[in-house]
Amino acid sequence: MLDVLVKKVMEYQDLYNEAWKYRDQRVDGWPLMSSPYPTIFICALYVYIVKVAGPNYMKDKEPMNLKYFLMVYNVFQVVLSAYIFVELLKNGWGGDYSFRCQPVDFSNNPKALKMVFLSWLYFASKFVEFIDTFCFVLRKKFSQVSLLHVIHHGIMPLAVWPGLRFVPGGHASFFGLLNTFVHILMYTYYFVAALGPRYQRFIWWKRYLTNLQMIQFVFVFFHSFQLIFYEDCDFPVLFAYWIAGISVMFFVLFSQFYIQTYLTKYSKKKVT
Predict the structure, then answer these.
(1) What confidence tens digit (pLDDT) does each residue in 114-134 have?
(2) Where do the domains of the chain lie?
(3) Which pTM was predicted?
(4) Of 56, 179, 219, 244, which is least packed with CB atoms within 10 Å of its CB?
(5) Pick the catalytic residue: 152, 171, 183, 223?
(6) CA 88 to CA 125: how far, in whole Å?
């Protein structure tokens, strides 16, 4: 049994070393780019903190009042998302990028390097978003630390890392473009919600945020999946499968959340 395990580990290591030859060397030396293991560790630690350590720590404590912190944090997230979104448009998707097929520019020209930086900044922003969950735990809003929430936040850095390490910019960055647009609206909603009950009437559109997130994953799926039928596109089809698969997973999770939160509850209210 041990011999089989050692053999499998060695096979994995050989495969990893072979794949590593195809990395984008422009991000060598950048934070968290030396290997996937630090990202895996941070994501695993995040899950442990929000599902085990955090709730245990807060068990006999009063919920924290984080109103003003959340207001500042949500404004920061809106600004960060808006910056990434606008710069992705300026340096690619609003200019000479093709929605049909966009190979990665591996050169060192300024626009190509800017797309690499924006890809890394988007990746880094996924760790900043862990603060969302930490605040739920500190406020003892444990019901909001749902399976969907934890999977979504815990997997995103792992989902983005391969694209950043091997194909930063190019076709894969379309996901970041749509996702940052959604996050501009999402953190605007969170900011208004943090203002208090007096402003709840201004955020009647909460359920439509979930709709928008689901639509986002549909667009990303078809944008990636089309490459499978486009033989002349100089973009690795393996990443098309990867992005399409992630999109399907999140679409299913968000669909289940939407059905349970809105459709099922609405049906029960109608019956009663």
Answers:
(1) 999 999 999 999 999 999 999
(2) 37-206
(3) 0.92
(4) 56
(5) 152
(6) 15
